[in-house]
Write a structure and sequence with these properties.
It is a single chain. With 374 residues, the protein is of the alpha/beta class. The chain has two domains: 152 residues, Nucleotidyltransferase, domain 5, CATH 3.30.420.40; 188 residues, Nucleotidyltransferase, domain 5. The chain contains twelve helices and twelve strands. A seven-stranded mixed sheet has the order 3-2-1-4-6-5-12, with helices on both faces. Helix 2 crosses helix 4, helix 5 packs across helix 12 and helix 9 packs across helix 10.
């Protein structure tokens, strides 16, 4: 087993923890741990799950034949909700751990990543890191204007996969990331589309709270006046309204499912001339129109970002779970290929992105940054 720059990557989600061991030669091992929601519900705060999740990680690593924690050169985790940061690799320090433990900037399972990584790293005398957390903020001053001074636009997006995909595309183009103009569309449960200009994401939609195109589970930009009147005329609480924007919006709201494979099967059946309402209960014609609308909105967002760099786009990069769909990729390519080359990297690739980022830092090719309080 490769000993040089071997790293453990940890990616906590709401009901799972994904793990991988990587070396410079590639992936050695991978596992996804599913956590019983009944057990998780016993913990009042997300931070209270730390020992439970850490124990599950360590027990899983013990299953890896021929591997010892002593082989590690570093532990890296998905970054949680921290203060806005520029992209890159950050050393886990006391300031970061305190902000994550106290949920100073918000509570999310990803907050556990750096905390678990730090505790495991300490047991073997190595350092812990995070790479490109969701709060990466490199917006240009002009991109922050929303039209309402009290509500500036924010940068919250799939920074980890976007950055990794952009760097990969730059290598494929024979350029450095810092000299490219790339439009990257991460398409999944949520969709974020960013313009990467000379190594910085200078404009991107807020993929959490809702602007940009609708996605599988998120509403995206909605007509502001109509939304205001909806809020005023309905007796929903804040949590229910938030869920309508993120979780039960988008494709889920139109079709009642977030299963892209079911939706595509219904579309395929409709195109074959089978019953509009197939045996799966989905209307193929309706599914086709909703997914075409999703691709339409993504394409429109991609094309609008070309204006940020005066149309000088090196490539459009499609990534995320929906990039596995031939239908989605074809629909978007047909609309945006006039901008130039379209490169497709299916999947989220987060564990790989974490590992590659920290290995480059250990080799001295990426700056290791320090997290400081705001």
């Amino acid at each position: 087993m490769e000993k040089l720059f071997t790293v453990l990557a940890i990616n906590p989600g709401s009901t799972s923890t994904k793990l991988a061991i990587y070396s410079e030669s590639g992936e050695i091992w991978r596992k996804s741990i599913s956590h019983d929601t009944t057990l998780l519900s016993r913990y009042r705060e997300v931070a209270d799950q730390l020992e439970f999740r850490k124990r599950a990680v360590l027990e899983s690593i013990e299953e890896v034949e021929g591997f010892s924690l002593k082989d590690l050169k570093a532990v890296v985790a998905r970054g949680g909700l921290l203060r806005p940061l520029k992209g890159g690799v950050y050393r886990v320090n006391e300031y970061m751990k305190n902000d994550l433990r106290t949920a100073r900037y918000g509570s999310h399972a990803s907050n556990l990543g750096a905390l678990i990584a730090d505790e495991i790293a300490k047991t073997v005398g190595v350092e812990a890191f995070i790479v490109d957390p969701v709060v990466v903020d490199e917006l240009s001053p002009l991109a922050r204007y929303s039209g309402i001074p009290e509500i500036p636009r924010k940068s919250i997006f799939h920074a980890l996969n976007q950055k990794a995909s952009a760097k990969k595309a730059a290598r494929e183009l024979g350029k450095s990331y810092g000299e490219c103009n790339l439009i990257v569309a991460h398409m999944g449960g949520g969709t974020s589309i960013g313009i990467h200009h000379n190594g910085r994401v200078v404009d991107v939609n807020n993929a959490l709270d809702g602007d940009g195109p609708f996605s599988i589970e998120r509403a995206g930009t909605v007509p502001a006046g109509d939304w205001m009147r909806y809020v005023l005329s309905h007796s929903h609480d804040a949590a229910a309204l938030q869920k309508k924007l993120t979780g039960r919006g988008g494709v889920v709201a139109y079709l009642g499912t977030n299963d892209a494979q079911r939706i595509e099967a219904a579309i395929a059946a409709y195109r074959r001339g089978e019953e509009a309402n197939n045996s799966d209960g989905l209307d193929g014609k309706r599914c086709l129109e909703v997914m075409q609308a999703l691709c339409y909105q993504i394409s429109r967002e991609i094309a609008s970002l070309a204006a940020v760099v005066n149309g000088k786009v090196d490539a459009v990069v499609l990534t995320g779970g929906l990039a596995r769909s031939d239908f989605v990729v074809s629909e978007i390519k047909n609309r945006v290929s006039f901008l130039g080359r379209v490169i497709v990297y299916p999947g989220e690739n987060e564990l790989q992105a974490l590992s590659e980022g920290v290995i480059e830092a250990l080799k001295g090719n990426e700056e290791i940054q320090e997290y400081c309080p705001s």
